[in-house]
Write a structure and sequence with these properties.
The protein is mostly helical and 73 residues long. It has four helices and no strands. It has a single domain, classed as Non-ribosomal Peptide Synthetase Peptidyl Carrier Protein, Chain A (Orthogonal Bundle), CATH 1.10.1200.
């Protein structure tokens, strides 16, 4: 989980590191946009060799929720 959070933080430009944790509602971050979404999808593919869908993103409320969905694939 910590590695996932660190990798997620690495794709962001403007968010402070202390704002990112397992309970972060990532879709409400100021810089959440289509580019960050694509970079997240690419990061998951590269780091976990798994594909996440729009539904995965839509139904995940926090980074922990998203990580658990990735793990269950």
């Amino acid at each position: 989980m910590e590695e996932f959070i660190e990798s997620f933080y690495d794709i962001l430009d403007e968010t402070e590191k202390n704002e990112i944790n397992k309970n972060t509602d990532f879709k409400n971050l100021d810089e959440w946009d289509s580019m960050v979404t694509l970079m997240l999808i690419a990061m998951v593919d590269e780091n976990y060799a798994k594909q996440i869908s729009g539904t995965d993103l839509k139904e995940s409320l926090t980074l922990e929720n998203l990580f658990m969905r990735i793990q269950s694939k």
